[in-house]
Structures are given as structure tokens and as C-alpha cells.
């Protein structure tokens, strides 16, 4: 598999009246052709700032890329002008946001909203673009697309609107689709349908997907690899199996332990104690240490590097240092992972 995107040591801050909010603090990851990478973490961990930076949509002038590279097919997007980014956005890299209503124009027919990009980026005429719009609505599972194409956003339910947004995002056959919590605003049944649709898209179009969510539970179903983010950093990255069945970072243990599973309804759900740090004053050392029952002395002083667990698996915790005490994941977390595996949520196969 070849690398489509390489993000290297990306740092993004916001200049605010209170000071510098360090939202992204040295994020590195690769995205291969045709794969789905999930980025998971609690609210405020820097997932959306990372994705809007990839799209060149950082709010200006407050948002600043402090350093780093975003290599897309070898070209650094950080160095591109807004004009150059407009040619990439929607065509090469496109995005689906959490709230479908905010991405749609309420006063414009759905069809015209899909057609825009096709005319702009693909040089189609109106008739060709309309035909393609109908095909796209069909592809994302909207019944009667030839009627729906002439309707307005308010005539669609929440789930159907999100399908429309996905159709718009797919219109120009992007190489990368970034979906930032695409199911968070939807109810559980509709969530599952949209996730299923994302899987189909992956299968049929071979688009690479960055799937962002705070819900680790949905990840096993959709992703090939998982990056766990905390306080503006990736603290663990690996294949779905690495992260679900051999997690190494205590924060990942916490996320797995607090994941509801079908056969664990009577068990008390674990919650990670405390709250994420204030990114105006990120802590010294390991940002997770104050919430980590397994924290070592060094965590208060020095940030852990990424330790290699295997060729596919890395985690930033001092527990992986060769001199660290041997600490295994808590039994309650292990049981929950087993419950998760057993209830077949890691579904499909
Ligand atoms: P997530 O998507 O993981 O929930 P975000 O990427 O939205 O988190 O936010 C990361 C951090 O950046 C948070 O501390 C958030 O408060 C801060 N942040 C996001 N947008 C802005 C902004 N426009 N101005 C100042 N701070 C921001
Ligand atoms: Mg977000």
C-alpha cells in the first residue's frame, strides 16, 4: 500500500485573548491508499482542529499552523495558498461534518448543491452534472433520487441529509474523505446505517477515509487502523486489532473500559477520572498523568516518546520503557474487551 498522506509533527495553536491555545501539539500519521484510519479521543483532544487543518479550513487569523508538514501525494499542503487549496478541497480531499444541516444551503435544491462541485471541478455541463447527481443520490441509498434531486434540505430527515452531504463529498471522486463525527448527531439506528454506508463507499470507491469519532465502540466496525488522540497528541496508533486487543496506553485502557458492550449491561461502566487539561497551559510531562492511576514519577517531568510495540503499533507511555515496572491493563478493562469481542460488535466477519 502506498502512502497518500503523511502528516509530520503538525502543531496548531489559536491566539486568543487569554493566550495561546495549543490545540494540536505534534501530530504525525500516515494514510495509505484505500484505507480507513479512525481518529478517536474525548472532546477537546484536537480531532476537529487536525481535520480542518488538513482541509485548509483553520479559522483565520486566530488559528496558526506553528510547524509541521501535510504531504498529500508528496506535496506540502501547509505551503499552499488559499487559491491552491480551493482546487484540492472538494476535489482531492473532501469532508463530511457532524451536523448535516450546517453543510447544506437551506434555500437551494439538493441537486443544485451537488451539481456545483461537478461543474466547478469536473467541467461537466448542467445536464451531465444532474445525471451524475441522481446517480450519487442513488449510490448513497436515497430512494427515488430522480424526485429527491429537486427537493430542499428541509424535506429530508437527519439521516437522509447526512447521506446527501456524503453524496456531495463523493461527487468529484476525492482521494480522501474526512468524516468528522458524521454520526454523532444521529440516533442509534440511523448511525448504524450511515456507518454501513461508509463501509460500502470504502469497498466500492477505494477512497481513503479519515473517520473521526469520540466513540471507540464504532471504530472496530469501520476502521483498518486507529489513532488515539489526547490533549493534542496521538498517544497510541495501530491496527484495529492492535488497539482493541493489545492496547498499551492507559488512556486507551480508559476508553476501552468505558465502552458500553451488549453483554455487560449489568456491570458498572468505568469512566476515566478527571477532565482533559486546559490547552492554554498544557501540563509538563505526560498530559495524561494527572488522570492516570499508573503514572510514574517521570511522567510529571518528561513527555514520553512514541515507543514501538510492533511494526504497526506505537504508543507514547513511559510504561513501555524497558526499565518501567511491568503493569498490565486492569482486569475490568480486559473483561470489557472480551465482552466486546464476544457480542460481535467487531462485526461483519
Ligand atoms: P475535538 O474535535 O477533539 O473535540 P477540537 O479539535 O475541536 O477538539 O479542539 C481542540 C482544542 O482546541 C480545544 O481545547 C478547543 O477548545 C480548542 N479550540 C478549537 N477551536 C478553537 C478556536 N476557534 N479558538 C480557540 N480555541 C479553539
Ligand atoms: Mg470535534
TrEMBL record:
Q: Which keywords are on file for this protein? A: ATP-binding, Cell membrane, Membrane, Nucleotide-binding, Transport
Task: Give compartment(s).
Answer: Cell membrane
**One GO biological process term:** peptide transport
Q: Per the database record, which ranges form the ABC transporter domain?
A: 5-256
UniProt-listed InterPro entries: AAA+_ATPase (IPR003593), ABC_Ni/Peptide_Import (IPR050388), ABC_transporter-like_ATP-bd (IPR003439), ABC_transporter-like_CS (IPR017871), Oligopep_ABC_C (IPR013563), P-loop_NTPase (IPR027417)
- Residues folding into a coiled coil are none
- An example Gene Ontology CC term for this record: plasma membrane
Instruction: Give the membrane topology, semicolon-separated if more than one.
Output: Peripheral membrane protein
**Keyword 4Fe-4S on entry:** no
Concerning SUPFAM superfamilies, the annotation shows: P-loop containing nucleoside triphosphate hydrolases (SSF52540)
Pfam families under this entry? ABC_tran (PF00005), oligo_HPY (PF08352)
GO MF term (any one): ATP hydrolysis activity
Q: Report the SMART domains cross-referenced here.
A: AAA (SM00382)
What the record says about family reads:
Belongs to the ABC transporter superfamily.
Q: Which NCBIfam families match?
A: oligo_HPY
Q: What is this protein called?
A: Oligopeptide transport ATP-binding protein OppD
| Taxonomic lineage from the root | Bacteria, Bacillati, Bacillota, Bacilli, Bacillales
Amino acid at each position: 500500500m502506498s502512502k497518500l498522506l503523511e502528516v509530520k509533527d503538525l502543531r496548531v495553536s489559536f491566539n486568543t485573548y487569554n493566550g495561546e491555545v495549543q490545540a494540536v501539539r505534534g501530530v504525525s500519521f500516515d494514510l495509505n491508499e484505500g484505507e480507513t484510519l479512525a481518529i478517536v479521543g474525548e472532546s477537546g483532544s484536537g480531532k476537529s482542529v487536525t481535520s480542518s487543518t488538513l482541509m485548509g479550513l483553520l479559522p483565520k487569523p486566530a488559528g496558526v499552523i506553528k510547524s509541521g508538514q501535510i504531504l498529500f501525494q508528496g506535496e506540502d499542503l501547509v505551503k499552499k495558498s488559499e487559491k491552491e487549496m480551493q482546487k484540492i478541497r472538494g476535489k482531492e480531499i473532501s469532508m463530511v461534518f457532524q451536523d448535516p444541516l450546517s453543510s447544506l444551503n437551506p434555500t437551494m435544491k439538493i441537486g443544485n448543491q451537488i451539481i456545483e462541485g461537478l461543474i466547478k471541478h469536473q467541467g461537466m455541463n448542467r445536464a451531465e452534472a444532474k445525471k451524475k447527481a441522481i446517480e450519487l443520490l442513488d449510490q448513497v441509498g436515497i430512494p427515488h433520487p430522480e424526485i429527491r434531486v429537486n427537493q430542499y434540505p428541509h424535506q429530508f430527515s437527519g439521516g437522509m441529509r447526512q447521506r446527501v452531504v456524503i453524496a456531495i463529498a463523493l461527487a468529484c471522486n476525492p482521494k480522501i474523505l474526512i468524516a468528522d463525527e458524521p454520526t454523532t448527531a444521529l440516533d442509534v439506528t440511523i448511525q448504524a446505517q450511515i456507518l454501513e454506508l461508509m463501509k460500502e463507499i470504502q469497498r466500492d470507491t477505494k477512497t481513503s477515509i479519515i473517520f473521526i469519532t469520540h466513540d471507540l465502540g464504532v471504530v472496530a466496525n469501520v476502521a483498518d487502523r486507529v489513532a488515539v488522540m489526547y490533549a493534542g497528541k496521538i498517544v497510541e496508533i495501530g491496527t484495529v486489532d492492535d488497539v482493541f486487543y493489545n492496547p498499551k496506553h492507559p488512556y486507551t485502557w480508559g476508553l476501552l473500559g468505558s465502552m458500553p458492550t451488549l453483554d455487560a449491561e449489568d456491570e458498572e461502566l468505568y469512566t476515566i477520572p478527571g477532565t482533559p487539561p486546559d490547552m492554554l497551559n498544557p501540563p509538563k510531562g505526560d498530559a495524561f498523568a494527572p488522570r492516570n492511576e499508573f503514572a510514574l514519577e517521570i511522567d510529571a517531568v518528561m513527555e514520553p516518546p512514541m515507543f514501538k510495540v510492533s511494526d504497526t503499533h506505537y504508543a507514547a507511555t513511559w510504561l513501555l520503557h524497558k526499565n518501567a515496572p511491568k503493569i498490565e491493563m486492569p482486569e475490568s478493562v480486559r473483561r470489557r474487551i472480551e465482552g466486546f469481542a464476544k457480542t460481535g460488535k467487531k462485526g461483519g466477519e
